[in-house]
Amino acid sequence: MNDDRGDHDEIATTDPATEAFVAHRNLLFTVAYEMLGSAADAEDVLQETWLRWVEVDLDQVRDRRAYLVRITTRQALNRLRTLSRRKEAYVGPWLPEPVLTAPDVAEDVELAESVSMALMLVLETLSPTERAVFVLREVFDVDYDEIAAAVDKTPAAVRQIAHRARRHVDARRPRAAVSASVSRAAVDSFRRALETGDLQGLLDVLAPDIVLLGDGGGIKQASRRPIIGADKVARYLVGGTRKIAETITIDPTLANGNPAFLLRLDGEIDGVMAFRIEDARITGLYYVRNPEKLTRVESETSLTLR
């Protein structure tokens, strides 16, 4: 297997195991990515899933899609526990790895919300098992018995975990879905103010309690603590862009199914800025500069709930 992100023309599809894996690959990647918040780790999980899948006796498999999701979930859970330890030693805030997505992802409201930077950050506050259960049940509508088999719990225990995780996420996720037009308007206003250094323009579009998180991973400069409050965030942004105004370009894009910016310095990718928007104002700014997390922002990644 190789990291071809969905282009499997070179693989002969006469083998039933290969056919099934290729048919569901985008779904499996989406499951792993939502569980891990890392595209690179999701790809590794797919490699591990493939190696286990080709050893399976397909005559004993009633539902190949469900079986593949089960393998992927188990591998992602193993990886998630390792990732949790890695995050404890991470320099500064840890943000999910952004992925460039096609407009069809943005048009699927349920999918766009589930992979949004805002919700992915909320999922970071769950335990590994809670996250797996929440993603499988709330995002992919997997039945409790199948989730139980994937996470090695009883269906009754899975129901309790799902309820606890749902309550936790609902208390922290954006209060209400914002329409695509409202999101675009807020992001466009933010961009104009940022490009012109318009401090008041920024204050008009930033929520009073906005939080800015920067992820440089100890490789690129970024604030190691959250910056909170519209005035502090606006001044931080204006001061930062003023120093590099002649070399920075801000290109609108879609990342994780939502409006985002791809920022370049002297033509080289510097980072991706994503947003959390509520009531037509920006409540969260997430700027990923860690170059190890910018490998999926030059070509689109296929995501799906089905």
Task: Give the strand tally.
Answer: 6
Largest sheet: 6 strands, mixed
Q: Work out the strand percent.
A: 15-25%
Pick out the low-confidence regions.
8-13
The best one-word shape is elongated
Query: SSE order in H/E notation?
Result: HHHHHHHHHHHEEHEEEE
What would you report as the Rg, rounded to the nearest angstrom? 20 Å
Explain this structure:
The chain has twelve helices and six strands. Strand 5 and strand 6 form a beta hairpin. It is α+β, with helices and mostly antiparallel strands and 306 residues long. The longest helix has 25 residues, at 64-88. The model is unreliable at 8-13 (pLDDT under 50). Strands 2-1-6-5-4-3 form a six-stranded mixed beta sheet. Helix 8 packs across helix 9 (155-170) and helix 11 crosses helix 12 (230-243). Helix content is 50%, strand content 15%. The protein starts with 15 loop residues before the first helix and ends in an 18-residue tail after the last strand.
What keyword list fits this structure?
alpha+beta; 15% strand; elongated; 306 residues
Short description:
The chain has 306 residues and is α+β, with helices and mostly antiparallel strands. It contains 12 helices and 6 strands.
Furnish the topology, listing elements before pairings:
Elements: H1 16-36, H2 39-53, H3 64-88, H4 103-107, H5 109-114, H6 117-123, H7 128-139, H8 144-151, H9 155-170, H10 180-196, H11 199-205, E1 206-215, E2 227-228, H12 230-243, E3 248-255, E4 258-265, E5 268-278, E6 281-288
Parallel strand pairs: 1-6
Antiparallel strand pairs: 1-2, 3-4, 4-5, 5-6
Helix pairs in contact: 1-2, 1-3, 2-3, 3-8, 7-9, 8-9, 10-11, 11-12
